[in-house]
## 1
Amino acid sequence: MKLINSNWFVRARLKNRHIPLLVALGDTGNLNRASEGLGISQPAISKLLKELEEGLGVALFERHARGVVPTLYGEAMIRHARRMLNTLDNAYSEVDALRQGQQGHVRIGTILTPCADLLPEVVSRARQRFPGLELSIRTGSSRDLLAILDDGELDFLVARFVADGQQHDLHFEPLAAEPLRICGRAGFIEGPISRAELNAADWVLPPAGSVLRQEFDALFQRVGMRPPTKVVNAENLLMVTTLVEKNDMLTVLPRDVLAHYARYGMLAGIEVDATIDTDLNQGLMAFGLITKNQQLLSPAARNVLELVREVALQPEASEATQRSAVD
């Protein structure tokens, strides 16, 4: 470690009381007023000043009948003392903000559904209440995110709880079960479509093993049909929506995600028989908050966790408008 001027402050016997003393004398130019402001006696002030000057080997102040005037050396020390006090004040403010959860870095893992409305609103409120907070949001499948959470790379998840024998220390707090909708590019299909027509269509779907893919395949399996075979497997939402928008293909998306793209005229819900909608969502698991140990979360992470609960439990004023975009 590099020594700072051979630790001059040790040789000069610099004490923590010397710093506010220098600032007080610089502000008042008077020993009496400085002693009153610091709450210590004038003899103690004189002793501290003498110690500092002897330690530095220079005179910091010229004594006059009406007070003290800083020398060239004194002005330099006063200037640095002010900076040191400001730095210490800033350090305390930063530590206090971290303790209160107003600063820090919160890492959230999420599945697709909460990205449409829930998390954007959480981010908006977090920016208003905790402007010094840094947020990182990572998307993926519930299974992949659970593994990342287990490795300690995420603070908490907004996902579906997929049971695994290795996961024994996780807490799941359900929030909602967002219905799935079958969709395609706007104007692609007019009128209702049957299960057989769905089976023959070209699809862009999440990879096998994902929760959405399991629900989609079950839609056909429940009536003894094999799932569609003309499938492009894609997990990235930009790839999914671009393929559907530019081709005669269908996909399945959470209702609120579809509503987002429908508002811009990019995608539209496909009209299907009511039994198809029922079958598609028959066994769909709710998504929710997944944490390993909330007691070990940072104050910042706990604040954002509470924001997610707040937003999820609040009725959305625009819900009816959003749903009309796809119904």
## 2
Amino acid sequence: MTPQAPRIQGHCDERFAAVRAAFERNFEERGELGAGVTVLAGGEPVVDLWAGWADGARTRPWERETLVNVWSTTKGPTALCAHLLIDRGLLDPDAPVAAYWPEFAAAGKESVLVRHLLAHRAGLAGLREPHSVEQLYDWELTTSRLAATEPWWEPGTRSGYHPITYGFLVGEVVRRVTGLLPGAFLHREVTGPLGIDFTIGLPEKEAARCAELVHPRVPLTAEQTAAFGRMEPVALAALGNPATGAAEANTAAWRAAELPAANGHGTARAVAALYGIVAGRGRLGEHRVLSPETVELVREGQGACRDLVLGAGFAHDTETGLGLWLSGANGSYGPNPRAVGHDGFGGSCGLADPEAGISMGYVMNRMGPHIADDPRKMALIDALYSAL
């Protein structure tokens, strides 16, 4: 290890030494600042490592219990809320959204199905009217605007990633069925009973152990800049109305808000546990959370296509299940095409592979410039599967 690389802490079974080596190289070669990675096999931790700094000034070490905003890796736990309701017969994925949220039927959306929300196929990837970051913190305003707006494309026909609106759309359905916002429902049903250190939003009492997000230090490549230039209006609305980044996510207002697509806070251990429910075919250790049939619904492919929002940033088609992305032929979550996961803006990810019985959580605070498949994440996944 180079003198500049931080000391890796935690434990790693000898069988998974390649994961530790890849984690070390992320600090030595890939600009990592502070991070954690956890791998569960059969629900048991075989890798649980952390290292680096929790702030850009390098005054606070990254500790075992350091929390960080994981951006869209939050979407997995939010989808889990919906699948809990599906599993209990309280929500039908093939029912119209308007059956639970009557106002949603406006502007030609009466035939949009719950499965379209879960699979980024509702046509509501972004709002059409200007919407500020501060307005995102107003749940009623944001959901009412989504209910009133018309889709950008014919719902159900294509996927178009819903980076921020996903949490409000799925979350409002959860609220209409349960009376609780997704953060409270997730805590009541899963993270509280199972002791999983993950919240949607961040309680003020936990602020002292939250890492500071840091903008990427690597500028966009010419290819990435050109990809942004080719974006369609729907992609610009999805990714830039409003624009969000580390500066917003480090504020007390962002952390206190309910943003079920983007402001989950947790440790790598917590992310691995939540995605481990899918890896365990509905079980995490001794606890049954979902039926195996519902887990299969989570990864029921909705058709591969060039995503209308992310397509300019990929050279290949992608495919979602009902809430998570399939690894597919490009191997975003390893060589099993039916493994699933979700990336977070800047690099974090959760992975679940029921066939291998493994899950992984990777969290970090120095954000990278990649839309998905950050090189640090891919190095860890490649190392994990080499160990298998």
## 3
Amino acid sequence: MTARIEDAGDRLIIWNGNAARRGALGPELYAAIRTAMEQAVHPRIRAIILTSEGDFFCAGGDLNVLIERRSLSEADRRAKVDDLHDLIRAMRESPVPIIGAIKGGAAGAGASLALACDLIVAEAGAKFTAAYVKAGLVPDAGLTASLARLVPRTLAMEMCILARPVTSERLLALGAITDCVAGPDVLTRAHQLADEVARGPRDAIGAIRSLVASAYDQTEAVQLDLERDAMARAAGGAEAAEGIAAFLEKRPARFD
């Protein structure tokens, strides 16, 4: 099995298998991610953890598959890329935060998957690589969009044009990932973050997630309207009633 979903109560864990090939992308991982996004609609689910069975998160696409695709028409090749991009869109539209637990490193579209997560815990020394240019290819799976949001332009060019790997420590210093820990602690730290998320207001966190995502693409005027509408909805909801009451009563809020 190259991918599986573990139901862990208030969270889902997506395990990328295929350890013999350093977690290379495959149809089973595509299916597992899509299924998890669908299951996450259930109010019981508060977070998703995306991690790997082996010691490397994801090596990206299989170049042998790309060789096979050379015989396809450009339209058919575009459709194949769209399958991958639909996966990134599903992650972007997840109803709950996605926490990446990155062991070893992430390359190519694997780096895209990692950086598409909302919170990212990486192993110390893990390397994020975008070496498409070495194969005469260009980044896909939203990598350029993620890099533009997370790192300076010069670093994005260093990764994509010079194909230089970037360590988790450097990304942490830039604020591009959430935490950098020893290898055995990666999944533990991811679960700690999931615990924090699970104690929060599910609907409000989902709205915040959407607002932050839209802020990169919208004008300030449009974003102000989106924030207004989201605040108006939130202020009349049960989560706000509990949260405000807990604050005034000086007690922890209970967002059941």
## 4
Amino acid sequence: MGSSATYAEQSAHLRSPLAVSPSARDLIRYATLAPNGHNAQPWHFRIGERRIDIMPDLARRTPIVDPDDHHIFVSLGAAAENLVLASAARGAPGMISFDPRKDGAVGIVFERARPIPSRLFDAIPRRQSTRAVYDGRQVSAVDIDSLARSAAVPGVDLVLLTDHRRIDHLRDLVLTGNTNQMADPAFVRELKSWLRFNPRQALRSADGLYSVASGNPELPDWLGPFAFDRFSTAESENEAYARQIRSSAGLAVFVGGGASPEHWVSVGRSCQRFALQATALGLSHAFINQPVEVARLRPELAALIGLPGRRPDIVMRFGYGPTMPWSPRRPVDAVIVT
């Protein structure tokens, strides 16, 4: 099944500190540490003269859970935010733009300036989506305000839930969405195709959902799918989600200004800034997106957060949690195109 130590060494290498004078490839390495749906890493990078373009890799779509490619463009926005934070910290701040005429590419054009260090940049290699039970501690009002301010991106609304009534309501939406998804054979097939059950499998593919990072045991390639079918039922998953949400300090819901790739890129930037600030504050976070992935649940979620008629884009929980194994990432050379 491979060596956990080897896997950890490779993960640490990918998250090594950024050089003082980084190359474009180094900046792209930092960009790829962004979160993305099913860890499919659905992006290509093209290096130009004082610019880098991030383009959707539609060969890595997840059409069952994400039929309109919403998660792809959120992922591109998160990667773009990592990239501009990293380039600014090394004296080359970047301006982000979106051009729907170029297959939905996100362009970053760089200038020369004095380095702009930030806590968000420092948090990039430490950020992880922590799918575990947290310790239930509350987050101070000062830190809640810091999270909200850090996530401010034009055109994106952030609603933070820390009261038990609304958290319980959103939990019920998560459980309903999970039950709906787990009852869909196509969804389950797609999810299983992205699961990696041991270090060797995760290193070989360099993508997907490394099950050990969610607290599950390592399993041989042949046994993993059978164990998933046997033990990962809607009921067991719902129990796990309920425990995880109950242990969280709060929930964050991100809502873009519209339902288009350009708006979804902005949402990705906002939720990544939130995640990085959470990391800087010693907080964990994880995505619980079932209420936005199951379309019929979106209106109820929008009403719950006081934005009726809008389309919620991302749901995250946050709190004080453990450090888990990292998710795999593809080599930089594999994501650069000419």
